[in-house]
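anyone seen this seq b4? input:
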Amino acid sequence: MTEDGGLFLYEKIGEEIRLVKWTGEIPHVSVPEQVDGKPVTGLEAYAFSGGMFESIALPGTIRTIGRYAFYNCHHLKSFSFYTSIEDVGAGAFTGCRKVERLEVTEQSVPEERRRRRSCFRDVLSEFSGEISVVYHGEGEARLMFPEFYEEGVENTPARIIMTEVHGTGLYYRNSFLDGQLNFREYDSRFYAARAQESERFLIRLCLGRLLWPYRLETSYQEEYQEYLKEHVEYAGRYLTETKDLSGLRYLADIAKDRIGMLLDMAQKAGWAEGVGCLMELRRVTRPARRTIFEL
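predicted toks r here
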């Protein structure tokens, strides 16, 4: 039994532990790093299959995930893992259609395993829906990956079926080199997202990169800022709706001439914190009036 009340079956293999089956019914699962003083290094096939879990967090000791390990975890929304995972079994996330958030931590590995590529892309590619990613490396980043879907289209004259990909999600998922996310490549794809993705998605993507600007080059920073300034009204509605104070403060700082409009939004929504923040920003950015006395 874990500290949070989770129950699981496991087997000892030498000096390591492999989790065979998780049987607890708690919604938020954190797999322990150790059992009986030995590291938990792997999940067996079907280890979490059919569970009612909403979130699962794996420790940095995990190196393998068995096939269909999370099969039909229909309620799973968030998955946390380390890039030291070396093998993700076939169909590991089959049936996990509600996953919307990944938290990934880059982890250094011993010299003998250093040539192994990161599992980040392998896990991300298991999901075709819209995914938000919290990335922990030498710095922190907040990333958005769009959804995509594939459609088979018949080419009658040639008697073949052609696959058409809709959405920019697959394009964004190809921003990797040897499994490592290439942030420049990721940011360079924004022009394609602007042409195809929703305004709400693009606002979230821009804010994520600007508020956590890990490896964000100046040219792309300016491009994201320009998009927000061009869509400040929609961005303001989104930030007011989600009560995102840090995002609102950033938006008001780069669009000072629209603070009045943003303040009106916050007041109509009854968002006291937002109103206070914007009133303070307006006070410090508004030039002081000179008073002239006639003698």
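Residues 141 and 212 are 5 Å apart (CA to CA). Residues 272-285 form the longest helix (14 residues). kinda curious what u guys think
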